[in-house]
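User: Just a sanity check before I run the rest of the batch. Below are the structure tokens for the first item. I only need the designed sequence back.
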């Protein structure tokens, strides 16, 4: 586990209260395209089957898995930093486990702990950044949760 991931996990555990927890991401890679700070309602978690067509699909890939759904109730702040940044959203989803039951590379274990603590209907602060990441091997857009909790 990387040091900053361990720090984030410890931060999430330390900020846990009796009924809620807060996740805060310390580092966001890539070019920032848009920033979203919202109040949202947790709608629940669904298991989604892979519908891709790679040679590893559907049972040995990272597609599908457990998806957390949020309904955006209100925006507290929104910044579109690029022509390619996402517009304001009405919903937001986070893949918390892939089709193999592992935590995806774009999701931290600390975020999964916070989502697991949520009850359907909970209202939370949900913040994310839409980025464009070029790590020298993969070039892709990512929507990374930077804060989730009260």
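Assistant: Here's the designed sequence for the first item:
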């Amino acid at each position: 586990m990387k040091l900053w991931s361990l720090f984030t996990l410890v931060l999430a555990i330390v900020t846990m209260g009796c009924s809620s927890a807060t996740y805060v991401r310390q580092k966001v890679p890539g070019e920032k395209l848009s920033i979203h700070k919202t109040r949202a309602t947790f709608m629940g978690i669904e298991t989604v089957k892979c519908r891709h067509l790679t040679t590893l699909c559907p049972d040995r890939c990272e597609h599908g898995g457990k998806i957390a759904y949020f309904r955006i109730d209100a925006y507290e702040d929104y910044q579109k930093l690029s022509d390619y940044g996402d517009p304001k959203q009405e919903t937001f989803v986070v893949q918390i486990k892939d089709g193999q039951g592992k935590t995806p590379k774009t999701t931290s274990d600390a975020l999964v702990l916070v989502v697991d603590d949520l009850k359907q209907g909970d209202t939370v602060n949900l913040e994310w950044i839409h980025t464009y990441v070029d790590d020298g091997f993969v070039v892709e857009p990512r929507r990374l949760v930077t804060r989730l909790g009260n």
